[in-house]
Amino acid sequence: MLSPYRVLDLTTERGLLCGQMLADMGADVVKVEPPGGCSARGIGPFYKDAPHPDRSLYWWAYNRNKRAITLDIQRDRGRDLLCRLVERADFLIESHNPGYLSQHSLGFDDLARLNSALIYVSITPFGQDGPKASYADSDLIVMAAGGPLILAGDADRPPVRLCIPQAYLHASADAAVAALAAHHERIRSGLGQHIDVAAQQSVAMATQSYILAASLGSPEVRRMSGGIKFGPLDIPTVWPAGDGFVAMTFLFGSALGVFTARFMRFLCEQGYCDEATRDKDWIAYGEQLMGCVEPLSEFERVKEIVRTFTRSHTKAELLQLALERGFLITPVTTIAEVVESPQFASRGYFQSVAHPELGESFRYPGPFAKFSATPIEYRLRPPRIGEHNSEIYRGELGLSEREIAELSRAGII
Amino acid sequence: MPNDLPLKDVKICDFMWVMAGPAATRILADYGATVVRIESPTRIDTARTLQPYLGNKLGPDSSGLFANCNAGKFGISLDLGNPAAHAVVRDLVRWADVVTESFSPKAMRAWGFDYESLRKLNPDLIMLSSCLMGQTGPLAKIAGFGNMAAAISGFHNLTGWPDRPPAGLFGAYTDYVAPRFTAMAILAALDHRRRTGQGQYIDQSQAECAIQFLGPAILDYSVNGRVDGRVGNSDAAFAPHGVYPAAGDDQWVAIVCRDDDEWRRLCAVMENENLASDSRYACAAGRLEHRDAIDSSIAAWSRALDRGAIESRLQSHGVPAHQVQNSADARTDPQLAHRGHFVALDHPSLGKFTVEGPRAKLSRTPAVARRAAPALGQDNQHVLESILGYHETRISELAASGALG
Questions:
Q1: Is B147 part of any domain?
Q2: How far apart are the first and last CA of chain A?
Q3: What are the pLDDT digits (tens) for B61-117?
Q4: 8 A C-beta contact, residue A190 and residue B15
Q5: B203 catalytic per annotation
Q6: What is the pTM of this model?
Q7: The domain that contains A169 carries what CATH number?
Q8: Is the residue at A361 inside a domain?
Q9: B60 touches chain A (CB under 8 A)
């Protein structure tokens, strides 16, 4: 879909997904790494747990469909080569600390003079300017600053993050959308622009709009294991099954109470509760609890009934019931269960990607959507360091073998 | 307001509801797309029933979630069970560049609004269907919400403590991830259509999008056979890496040392000579091995201190730290204020309604939340008269037929 477009990807470990999203959709993404490789190549886990810059699974996860060259952009000759690439590029993505590339005369203003149509995308923890723009960061820091962290975890322990870093994925994805919106405008105007994405804002998306609570005059919610505390109510979202856990939406109100009523009818049929319990007003139930019309102890009794039911069934049985009867239940799965899932298999989701130098193929997360006219293809496995130096420097910029060897000796590439 | 936004020429007929879909078209609306959101007058959008509420009061338009996901759109109420509404849908499809929907698979087909039918009305139409598990497969029909898709794609099981059941992520996590892929897919398909004249159908599984965010864990399994589990806030490479108590009720600060130098600076700020000089902690491998002891020492220090003071003191020494923010903290966060993260829109009946602003800053054509989310059917007249060009008698007939609710 995006095959006419060239993307220069100067991101550190913070912005890799942005280029991969564009690359999956066909863009010609060239990862520009410092000699020795991008910092992300040092992040584990590794193939067979042996650290090696071409075998970082973190690198593999976010760099498929890209080509890769090395270039020391801090030195004049490296900078000049980058400028030659910028002249023919449509997008440049970077995730350095604010000001770093400007110091090397590679800021937006510098490069817009070379290529006024360039869309220059910056992904940073807090944005290009402002009181926290130069804050030291990490995934956990951004999740703390942007709102999601406080909402997850056990009530008697500190808030907890998802153990696979997420913050820069949210930011990278916002950046990719913004880049294409700017591109759409560029078709009319012929002009590029600078896009400034702050991960702190991007992760606020993962609060389900609760980031707005105080601004709206609404109370905060508080974390609890497998659910959320809403005022005096403990609302579980994760429930025990006979062989693990399931996620179940057991909520009230005019939209969700209908599902709860259907579910409670089934529990009554199955002998888990009496008719009076079945016939509670599940639409108004939340308000009844908040208004103390229904005592909290009664809600506790109801939850125990539900738990008794879920505990007496396996995850697979509960999923089958959900499918047959329209209950809002899915299993809490391990990564192994995800990769081996018949659902994903039936859609051909996980894709086998060959790594010929290792003589093996591995299953990667598959295309994010099925496009009827332009299906996403995995054309290139994640590149090794400098794998496409010759293709780009000789084939495209017309450097001779001798010049390339000399640049290599000088440590530029 | 003159619309000179990037997507000012993009027209979207939007059947999506709840969160994952509307959050995507909200992004496109901020960039200037004209989005006509079709809502059922009989089956309320679940998002309208969900907290947080403006003024903490449940009302048809008071959901902050609905307001946040639907700012900038036009709203029309159409009862799709009423045949008179179908003619309006067909006209909207002829008008639109893009049709989006997020019902369970088969709902659109049941109404005769599947892609094959709609492209007869609009041959270069782009249509995107988004649902939990995708349009095909044994679980295609599973109804539900993003918390369920997050559970079945592995997220919940990776969040929490190794000695406890899964804590799970807050809310409908896949609904936070999928919207970006939805918006991307639409923009890329529009570019393809501009160059080739070819529209297409896009089948989006919200779970399959979200799994893009678990890449390293998926590969650790498929390459090394390892099944990741819960590790609390531990990191594989960094220690300390945690959330520590601060003075006050349920107050916390996140602190991370990414290298040995940051560790030395943390010890200096803590004025803890014993930690600083302990050779076991000098390098990351040692700190990872002794992370529990280090965490206890940091917690003992942080417990009595103000979390904001910890943040600024550590950051002034270049150590990653941030107070763990709730919505009240976010509201007064100077950086979010600097970025204009919160935007107060004028709601026709509720006064000022605060939503989140656009997340990316474009230097020349900045995105903007142009209007508050529509009340149910608020823009019926505008859509029918100005967008579809219906005559007043036709609009009256439609209203009389009950098609508008």
A1: yes
A2: 31
A3: 999 999 999 999 999 999 999 999 999 999 999 999 999 999 999 899 999 999 999
A4: no
A5: no
A6: 0.98
A7: 3.40.50.10540
A8: no
A9: no
